[in-house]
Amino acid sequence: MTALNLVNVTLEYPDGEGTMTALDAVNLAVHPGQFVSLVGPSGSGKSSLLAVAATLIKPTSGLVVIDGVDATGLNEKELAALRRDKVGIIFQQPNLLASLTAAEQLVITDHLRGKSPKSAAARAIELLDLVGLADCAKKRPHQLSGGQRQRVNIARALMAQPKVLLVDEPTAALDHARSDSIVRLLREVCDEFNVATVMVTHDTEFVPLTDAVATMRDGVLTAPVPADAGVGAH
Ligand SMILES: Nc1ncnc2c1ncn2[C@@H]1O[C@H](COP(=O)(O)OP(=O)(O)OP(=O)(O)O)[C@@H](O)[C@H]1O
């Protein structure tokens, strides 16, 4: 089964008297453990695609199916539950809470899902270890580097054991070495957790670390091609 399936998804934004088509009959199927890069010029619709896949924006038409559930048929409450349980979202800016330690940033997500704080604490430490931050569990955001904050962000997104991971420009605020290690970490996470991962990126040099690359242009998405034969190889 595909973990994320966008079927004939069209998204129109109001634009003056008319509409502008941000996504034009987009199809994308991502399997568990598959890592897809999404590239394309500025304004082509990449962030819109992630927002629709995250069920944060309802498409004008088409289906968004997450782990077998058609999100387009759900109400707001059901959508919130689907997002919480199945979708991990990693944006460019980690948006960590300033007063919480790295471990607490993770634990609080389980509180929000109504899980036991005891198992949450153990899992938070495990995940921080996995992302290379075993020594930083008690540090607050201002005591962490940009790369470390992004690692906390990734660990936090994994707390719910999501089926789908949506990543928007994770390396935009980082230097080359840190960017490389973040994309390698995402590759590891994708493999280890068997999570379907879509990453929007401008850095085509990191595309070969992913399985496939799909290109967005004026709201139209090309079918994914193997990443080593795609833009990253040039
Ligand atoms: N809320 C909105 N209302 C109206 N138009 C919007 C809205 N959000 C995005 N758009 C338009 O939709 C198109 C796609 O935008 P989107 O942000 O998805 O592109 P992008 O490929 O992610 O761009 P970038 O690489 O610059 O982040 C653009 O023309 C943008 O101006």
Automatic annotation (TrEMBL):
SUPFAM superfamilies: P-loop containing nucleoside triphosphate hydrolases. Keywords: ATP-binding, Nucleotide-binding, Transport. InterPro entries: AAA+_ATPase (IPR003593), ABC_transporter-like_ATP-bd (IPR003439), ABC_transporter-like_CS (IPR017871), ABC_transpr_LolD-like (IPR015854), MacB-like_ATP-bd (IPR017911), P-loop_NTPase (IPR027417). The keyword Aminoacyl-tRNA synthetase does not apply. The keyword Thylakoid does not apply. GO terms for molecular function: ATP binding. It holds the Pfam family ABC_tran. Residues 4-234 form the ABC transporter domain. This is ABC transport system ATP-binding protein. It comes from Arthrobacter stackebrandtii.
